[in-house]
Please model this.
Amino acid sequence: MRARRAALPFLLTVALWLAIAGALSEVTKRVSDWFVMTDELLYERLALSIVRLGTPLPHVHGESISNINQLYPMLLSLVFRHGRVLHGFHEAHVLNAFVITSTALPAYLLARRVTRHTVLPIVVAVATASVVWVTLASFLLTEVAAYPAFAWSILGLHVCLSRPSARYDLLAVAGIVLAVLARTQFYILAAILPLAIFGQAAAERRLREAAREHRALVGVYALGALAAIVLIASGHHVLGSYSQTAKGNPLPWEVFRLAPAHLAIVALAGGLLPTVIGGGWLVSNLLKSETRERQCFAWLAIVTIVLLTFEVSSFDVRFGGGVIRERYLFYLTPLLLTAMAAGLSAARPPRWSLAVSIVVLGLGFWQAPFPTFQKLNADTPASVLNDWLLSTMRGLNGTRVFLVLAAIVIALLYVEATAFVRRTYVIAAIAALLVVALPAETAYGFKRLFAVNGTSGLPMTLDQSVVFNWVDRVVGTKPETVMIPYPVLSSDYWANVGFWWDLEFWNRSVTREAGRPNEFSGTPPGDFPKIDLRFNPKTGRANVDLDAFVAQAVAETRFHIVGEPFTTQRNVILSQPERPWRADWVSYGLYDDGWTRPHQTARIRVFSLPKQKGRTLRWLTLRLLAPEQVPPRAVSIRSDAGSWHFDVTSASIQQQVSVCVPPHGYADLTVNAAGFSQIAGDPANTETFATTRSGGVQFQQIALADETGNC
Model:
C-alpha cells in the first residue's frame, strides 16, 4: 500500500507531462516551414541519412562528417522513415513536443531525491515543461533532445555523488555520454562531476575516502583521456564540428562581464523566484545541510551553474558577437527549480544568503543589453519580454533598474512570508505564480512566432511543400538527385540561399550538392560536403560520374551537364545526365554569377558530340543584361563561324550566335564588353556579397540548341 501511495505523485507527474505535451503538440504541429537555417537542414539530412544508409554514424551528402550531436537525428529518423519530407516534418513537431517536455520526469525525480517532498517535485516538473524555451519544439534543433538528456545526466550525477559506488560511477558516465550525444557542449559535465565530488568531499573533510569510493570513475576517466589522446594523434578532434570553439583564449575579459548577464536572463525568463530563492539556498548549503542528498545537490548545482554559464558566455563572446544566447544555457532551469523547492522545504529557509542571488542578478541585469526582435528569436526566446519591458520602463536604464528592484522586492517578500505566513501558504502561492506565469510567457512566445513571417519570408503556418517538393514528385523519394546551386537572383543574396535551402530541405531525393569551391552555396562545406565538379578542358568530361539526376538552374552560366530533361520548374532544370557525365559547354573568364570582368575577354567553349564525325555547326542563345542607369554597353562576340556586335541595356536582350565545332575537340566563342561599372558583390558568401565589384554585362542564360548543321 505504501509503495502504491509513493508511486501516485510520479504517476500524476506522468499524466501532467502527457497533458502538457499534448497541448504543446497542438501548437507545434501548426508549424509548416523551417525557421533556423542551416541547423534544421543539417539535422533533417542526418536523420534521412540514417534511414537511407541504415547507420547511426553521421553522413551528409553521402559522406561521413564530424558530428557528435547524433541523438536528435536518431530520434528524427523514426518519423522520417516513410513518405515525403512533409509527413515526417509534421510528425517531427509532434514528437518534439513530447520529447522536450519529457524533461519533467527527470526533473521530478531529482527534486524528489533532494526534497523528499510530495507536492514540490510536481511543481518543479510542471514548471520545467512550461518555460518559454519549449517554443524550440517548433524547430528541428538538438535542444529538443538535449533538454531531457541533460536533466537525466544531472540526475545520474547526483546519484553518483550522494551514493558513491562503482555502479553509480558508471551510471554517471553513461549519463554524460547521453548528454554529449545530445549536445557536444555537455562535455563540460565531464569536468563538473569531479569538481563537485572534490568540493563536497572537501566540505566534509573526507577527500581520501572520496577517492577510494570513486575508483571506478578514476579508471573510466583515465581510459577516456587515453582515447582522446589517440583520437587527436590520429588527426581527429574530440569536439567534432565544434572544434573551432577550442581555439584561442577561452576566457577573454568580456566573458566575466557577460556571465552574470547570461544567468540573469535565464532567471528572468524562468520567473525570477527559482533563482532568487534557489540561489540563496544553494549558497547556504555548501558547507552544511540537512541531508547528504541536499548537500551533494548544492555542490553539483553550484559547479554546474558556474561552469556552464562561463562556457556559454565564452562561446557567445568569441563566436556570437556578444549577444546573449540563452538557448545554450536554459538547461539550468531544472536545477534552479529544484534548488527553489529545496529552499521552500528546508527546515531553515534561506535568508541572508539571498543577498548572493541579488548581487549576481543585479550585476547581470545591469550588463544585459535587452535587444528586441520583430519575431521570436530562436537563439534567445527569453527576449520576447524585452519589448514590453523597454516600452513600459521607458528605456534600457529603466528596465535595468526595475529588474534589480524586482529581485530585491521578491527576496524581501519571501523573507517576510517565511517569517509570518504558514509554509503551506507560501508554497501554494509560489507554485500558483509559476504554473500561471510560465505558461503565459510561453503562449506569448508562440504568439510572437506566428505573428510575422518566418525567416523564409513565408508565414510559419503556410504549407508550401506542395510547391517546393516538386523534385520528389517527379523522380520519387528513392532515387538520388544532385543539385548545383547557382544565384538565380543577382540582387538578393538571402533569397538565392533560401531558394536552394528549400530545394534540398523539402526533397528527400536531393541527396548531394555539386559546384566549384568558394563559389555560391547556402551551406557550410564542413557540415555539408560538396562535390568539386571539374571538366576536362579538351573533352568536357566530368571528374565525377554518379547514377543520379541533376537539378541545374536555367540561368546557369558556368557549365551545362548533358542530359535528358525531365521537367523545368521554378527556373530549375531536372535532367537525367548522360553517362559518363560531361559538359556540352563551359565558360571561362566570367564571374561565377555570369558577369563579365573588366578588361578581360570571356570564353564560352562548346565541346564536340561523342559520335561526331565532321565539323558541326552549333547554335547558342544568349540572354544578356547591363547594369541599370548606364549607357548601352557594346558587346562583341566572335567565333570560327562569324562575329556579332550589339548593344546591351538594362532591358534584357537575346542574341543567337553559332560556332563550328571540330570532331573530338572543341571551339570557343570570345566575348568582350566595352565599359564597366560597379555592380552588386560576388554572391559566394555574405562577406563578398557586401563588397561591390566592377562588371560589364551579365549573361542571364546560355542555352545550346540540340539542332546541328554543317560548317
